[in-house]
Design goal:
With 166 residues, the protein is mainly beta. It is built from 2 helices and 8 strands.
Length: 166
């Protein structure tokens, strides 16, 4: 098990998984907060996969999910700015820990790819707003692969708002 931690988020990566945590673009957030003082910490994105992630991967896996084979999994936790906390979309409290195979669907993907299935869950944890996005390399194998996703979800920890890096 490898612990991946940055920007107030930690993932316990099982052996054989690849992952990264990075900050998202801050241009829009900086413009919105230009009048009110220093901008808040830029939102982050954490990504994990059962295969090697390429150097350039979009927030929701663009550039990586196209490389997936049937047994592969991709997971992203994408943070939204603090204005999203308390909105209806992010009303679910807490990191989802148990996903059901029946909740995955081929049409739940950012980009539909043959054979794949996915899920999106919006939630708030530690006064931070997130989207959990999971892609299965094989929708028909979801009964076998969703337990692996749930094991990863058990090892996610989120701290409160992280101060901006200067």
């Amino acid at each position: 098990m490898t612990v991946l931690a940055a920007h107030g988020v930690a993932l316990d990566l099982p052996a054989g998984w690849d992952g990264r945590i990075r900050r998202r673009s801050t241009v829009e957030a900086a413009q919105r907060h230009a009048v009110s003082g220093p901008p808040p910490a830029p939102p982050m994105v954490a990504q994990a996969a059962t295969f090697s992630l390429p150097a350039k991967v979009g927030d929701f896996g663009g550039g990586a999910v196209e490389l997936m084979r049937a047994p592969d999994l991709f997971l992203a936790i994408v943070e939204y700015d603090s204005d999203s906390v308390g909105t209806a979309l992010f009303r679910r409290l807490g990191v989802p820990r148990r996903l059901r195979a029946e909740s995955f669907h081929p049409q739940a993907l950012q980009r539909t790819l043959p054979g794949q299935g996915g899920i999106q869950v919006f939630f708030t944890e530690a006064e931070r707003a997130f989207c959990l996005y999971v892609v299965l390399g094989s929708y028909p194998r979801r009964g076998r692969t969703v337990p692996l996703v749930n094991r990863l979800l058990d090892g996610i920890r989120v701290d409160g708002r992280v101060p901006a890096q200067r």
